[in-house]
Design a protein that fits this description.
The chain is of the alpha/beta class. Helix content is 46%, strand content 14%. The protein is built from 21 helices and 17 strands. The protein has a seven-stranded mixed beta sheet, with helices on both faces. A six-stranded mixed beta sheet has the order 3-2-4-5-1-6. The longest helix has 20 residues, at 77-96.
Length: 528
């Protein structure tokens, strides 16, 4: 696989003038590119002039640092390269005719860049912030032909970003992935070596420990990973709780992602026996998921993703649909689609599954990735999915929950395979759930219970919670519960009709069979 620095080096050799690199760590990317470009230059004995610009410090010269000598040593090849680059950089800056540190206007520095000498590479930081400026767009476009004539290159650095149409066709767009496991391992070992200067007795981690460190850092950028490892490394060794706390905080800073925690386990769930068994078999197989990504109320998120949607919320929904389909297909993710009336335990199933099998539970909020600007919405969903991939790679289980499927496109439903239908609890299932929820809130297990025909699991939980909060018996607290079977019976009937024979049952193996349940005094179940 060709790396980003290798690709840029080849592009530079072919006089490609404009490059945009989507990166989560611009400083590391710049450093990696400089090293590769310098190594290639050594072979050809032609060293490019390397300059860097950002809005706070203006233009600066980049040059190789010699780790062996504090002062220039004419016998040292690295020192000679450093001196040559400094001289070339100073000459290049003099051609601009202005004080480099005063060049803090993005449009202005790009206009002056036409004066830079041949074999110059200019790094332009946080480029995505300035493309709403007409002068910047025009200046970038103007550099295309001017830079191509004599091996100059503008390398724009920023997060994942949709380039404006005025320059999109002229810029080589590269998307740098988050650190690989090998790169994270190198970062970890380097931090251990640094720490051993203060704690000589600190042992270098063995392979299992290294794997745990990699697992705790997978999905975050190189610099925060380096910081997290350094700050979690104690005299006695790695503080894994601290490392995971920092990882959760880092992932939660990604728009649309939240790291979830839960106390429930699969044993706390009733009415989903077939679905739970399927999950157990899946997690004990060769595709055991590292990450369980929950997409709640998926049908509402994807509303407006129909054919022909090109702008506004509809355009964002359409693009989100496209990227989710690509992610599941290209990265070999597994999908599950859970459908039920509200309160039947779909979200609980996802959280409990992650706890049960030690997977990282992520809640994805596609709506939180959206902006009033379509380009920013596209950037948001790409970044969210890219982060999930970095954490779980091909070991991601995507569980989408819906209260209906009418608004979901057929191709999306196909990626998730056959939907699972989670019905209202039967009498036997409700009987099993009451003790679990009563114990959870420290309530009397033998007290009189309300008439619970047609109740969901959430309604049983809410009744127990209200009894605990109000300090009232269950029967009194239940007066504040209006089950969905009474508030929206049409929804339940419609879902059961659609599920019958076409969706999988969460309760028992095979397709869902529509059942009409009557409960007499003895709570005898009759299926018609």
């Amino acid at each position: 696989m060709t790396t980003i620095p290798e690709t840029v080096n080849r592009a530079y050799a072919k006089s490609t003038p404009l490059v945009y690199i989507a990166t989560s760590d611009p400083a590391k990317t710049q450093d990696s590119l400089c090293k590769v470009l310098e190594l290639q230059a050594e072979k050809e004995t032609i060293y490019p002039t390397l300059l860097s610009w950002n809005i706070a410090t203006g233009l600066e010269i980049l040059s190789r640092q010699c780790s062996e000598h504090d002062k220039f040593n004419p016998q040292c090849q690295t020192c000679k390269i450093q001196g040559s680059q400094q001289d070339q950089g100073q000459k290049a800056l003099q051609l601009l005719g202005e004080e480099p540190k005063e060049l803090t206007r993005p449009g202005g520095v790009l206009i002056l860049a036409t004066k830079l000498p041949a074999d110059t590479i200019l790094f332009f930081h946080f480029a995505h912030l300035y493309f709403d400026n007409e002068q910047v767009k025009q200046a970038v476009w103007n550099l295309r032909d001017d830079f191509k004539t004599n091996a100059r290159m503008l390398i724009m650095l920023g997060p994942d970003f949709t380039l404006p149409p005025e320059v999109a066709q002229d810029v080589l767009y590269l998307d740098e992935p988050l650190p690989t496991d090998e790169e994270l391992k190198a970062i970890a070992l380097r931090q251990y070596e640094n720490a051993r200067q203060s704690y000589p007795e600190l042992a270098i981690p063995n392979d299992p420990e290294t794997d745990r460190i990699i697992d705790a850092c997978r999905g975050i950028a190189a610099f925060p990973a380096e910081q997290a490892i350094a700050e979690s490394l104690k005299k006695a060794g790695m503080d894994f709780e601290s490392l995971w706390t920092r990882k959760r905080a880092s992932l939660s800073n990604v728009a649309g992602l939240t790291v979830e925690t839960s106390r429930e386990r699969l044993s706390d769930i009733v009415g989903q026996d077939a679905m739970v068994q399927y999950l157990r078999d899946l997690m004990n197989g060769p595709k055991r998921a590292r990450v369980i990504l929950r997409l709640d109320e998926f049908e509402k998120t994807m509303a407006g993703s129909g054919v022909g949607a090109v702008s506004g919320d509809s355009g964002a929904a359409s693009y989100s649909l496209q990227k989710i389909l690509e992610s599941i297909e290209d990265w070999d993710w597994i999908g599950m689609l859970l459908v039920s009336p509200p309160g039947c335990g779909k979200s609980l199933f996802t959280k409990a599954a992650a706890v049960e099998f030690g997977a990282l539970a992520l809640a994805g909020d596609i709506g939180a990735t959206r902006s009033k600007f379509l380009g920013e919405s596209e950037q948001g969903i790409r970044n969210m999915l890219k982060t999930v991939y970095a954490v779980g790679q091909d070991r991601v289980l995507v569980i989408a929950t819906c209260n209906d499927l009418e608004s979901l496109r057929p191709e999306l439903r196909r990626r998730f395979e056959t939907p699972w239908y989670v019905d209202l609890l039967t009498a036997k299932e409700r009987e099993a759930l009451w003790p679990i929820q009563l114990k959870r809130y420290g309530l009397d297990l033998d007290q009189l219970r309300p008439d619970d025909i047609g109740w969901t699991g959430a309604e049983i939980r809410n009744a127990c919670r209200k009894a605990w909060m109000l300090r009232k018996p269950l029967v009194e607290a239940s007066k504040f519960i209006l089950p969905i079977s009474k508030s929206d019976p049409e929804l339940i009937e419609r879902l059961r009709n659609r599920a019958a024979g076409r969706w999988l049952s969460a309760s028992y193996p095979g397709p869902y069979r529509k059942e009409i349940e009557r409960e007499e005094a003895g709570k005898k179940k009759i299926t018609l």
